[in-house]
Specification:
The structure is a single chain. This protein is α+β, with helices and mostly antiparallel strands. A hairpin with a 5-residue loop joins strand 1 and strand 2 (48-55). It is built from 5 helices and 3 strands; from the N terminus they run αββααβαα. Helix 1 (4-25) packs across helix 3. It has helices spanning 4-25, 59-71, 73-84, 99-124, 159-164; strands spanning 35-42, 48-55, 91-96.
């Protein structure tokens, strides 16, 4: 088993070699300038590499790019083997990266949230508090009526007090 640092270095090398070879070495019209290599991952035993790519275009261009990458897989693996200098050149598997679709979904959700926030701000612009602006009672507000009574006032009429006993 190779260590993770070696697998990461090999993955970075594969990404660089495949990108350069797609840009300059392969003349397939299906692999025009709209194919971008986004990431590469190598297994721990350095036998298999997964190359993630994006295609900026419609579904037809994505399908053509996938077919073009499959047909160029041998040439790309040979270029990786020549550049890597490892005992066993990893097999390449090309996977369409879902990053642009995920980013578009997140952008759509953020736009909905912004619209909802704007609607809430618009509704609350002319709104007033239901009560006072500061609803908390303060200690100096306890005796606002000027009465200095403690609530122990008796007027001498004991009829209510005797009835309760």
């Amino acid at each position: 088993m190779a260590d993770n640092a070696r697998a990461k270095r090999l993955a970075d090398l594969i990404q660089e070699v495949v990108a350069k070879k797609l840009q300059r070495g392969i003349k397939d019209p299906r692999l025009g300038s709209h194919v971008t290599i986004t990431d590469t991952r190598v297994t721990g035993d350095l036998r298999e590499a997964t190359v993630f790519y994006t295609v900026y275009g419609d579904d037809e261009q994505r399908a053509e790019a996938a077919a073009g990458l499959e047909s160029a897989k041998g040439v790309l693996r040979s270029a990786v083997g020549a550049a890597a200098g490892v005992k066993f050149t990893p097999t390449l598997a090309f996977v369409a990266d879902a990053l642009p679709d995920t980013a578009k979904t997140i952008e759509d959700l953020l736009d909905k949230a912004r619209a909802s926030d704007a609607k809430v701000r618009e509704v609350s612009a002319g709104a007033a508090f239901a009560g006072e602006a500061d609803p908390y009672k303060k200690p100096e507000d306890d005796d606002t009526d000027g009465d200095e009574t403690d609530g122990d006032e008796t007027d001498g009429d004991d009829t209510d007090g005797d009835a309760a006993k």
